[in-house]
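Problem: given the chain below (310 residues), write out its structure.
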Amino acid sequence: MELKQLKYFITIVESGSLGKAAQKLDVGTSALSQQIAKLEDELCTRLLSRTSTGVTPTPAGSAFLKQAQLSLRHVQYAIEAAHSSRLTGHVSVGFSPSIASVLGIPFMKLMSERYPDIKIHLVESLSGNLTNLVNSRQLDIAIIFTQDVDTNWSVQPLLKEQMFLMANKALLQEFGFEQCIQEGEIDLQRINQLPLALPSQRHGLRKFLDQKVELLDVDYEVDGLHLLMNCVSNLNMATIQPVSAHFDYLKSDICLLKVVEPKLDRINYLISISEEQLSPASLATKVAIKSCVKDLINKGLWPSAELLDF
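Solution.
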């Protein structure tokens, strides 16, 4: 099997036809077809289904495509590493908005100091979106709140965050919750009396809460952490979030009450393609994330977060 065959196959699938692929690759259609035939003979399986309108990958072809793309990426990593005595490469990393608010700056600072030649593409998005990007192999590493990813991915519990009710102090006093403010705790029965704002059901946090809590009365759905926290800070709304969501608002008048009965803990998972498949740059980045998280928690800079064994 030759690297050019992998490149030819990927280009054909992405182009949807042999003719278009041949133009992109600047090779003859006949030569391209022969190389794919040789590849299929070597694998003893059909990779492409040919029709009058073009070509599409067979189920075997779709499975082969992911690994072929990964192989070519690693070849590029190897070329980049050979051209430099220092660790180099491109790594794509995904954080949810709440994780990014705490981890984003320290992580980027650590990477710039340790590995200045590694180019980081940092994506901030909803946990559900990150899961889709991970499964489509558009991210190398991510921190998400679910284990529902491709079985070939490495999934490692990273930290556990306790959930809090967050609301303006005046709103809590309006509902007669002075004792809750003093004790720093609140139960679900009282939470349901408040005008509650949460992300919509496509959001990882909402899915987590719906799984853990029955009959949660949601009055407003707000997608976007910054907008949600501004609503809580300035309007008569409450929300349920980890402390990391409140990180930029610690000096505001928002009260944080620990949710009890039921107690709510959310696990954050560090995921990546299997470490055997990770590039050296991605491995270094994964270690840096763990180091950064450990340092923040040990220094008390990530309130209510508990480091899990890793």
